[in-house]
Amino acid sequence: MTLIEDIVKPEIAIYSAKLFEKNPHDTQICHWHQDDAYYTQHSVCDCRMSAWIPLQECDEKNGCVWVVPGSHKHGLRSANMIGDDTGHCELAFAHGTADLEGAVPVPMKAGTVLLFHALTAHRSLGNHTNRPRRSFIISYQDAVTKRGNKDQHTILRAAE
Predict the structure, then answer these.
(1) How far apart (Å, rounded) are the C-alpha atoms in residues 140 and 45?
(2) Which end of the chain is less congested by CB atoms within 10 angstroms, N or C?
(3) The domain that contains 63 carries what CATH number?
(4) pTM to 2 decimals?
(5) What tens digit of pLDDT does each residue of 90-120 get?
């Protein structure tokens, strides 16, 4: 838990945990979005973050995550309905193929961890390989915020 203590404090809870899969040759993209656009529908918290863990090696060919470093400092952007059938993330603020200033791909080895604030702008593009791209994402928030994502909300460390 020491990896997340600088962002999530004073007490730590799991907001949600989920497994994602991009099948081979899946052209669906996850549009540019901020996780907090979804999380604030359940509860408001200023210190949420996620740990994104690829279960296979990921790169630009199989749909690695792209982030805009420092974007979390600019607050929550207004979500737009993208209005096409090329992808998902209905609370996106820009089409997934849009070039955002400062955006970088984050290729990763299986089992490594990408930590990012819930306000960080990010996307993933399609999987253009013959292998699946799976990832596990666990999102944390302070334990003072009483609600998380339904029964996934679990307090890991409460005040002593």
Answers:
(1) 10
(2) C
(3) 2.60.120.620
(4) 0.86
(5) 889 998 889 999 999 999 999 999 999 999 9
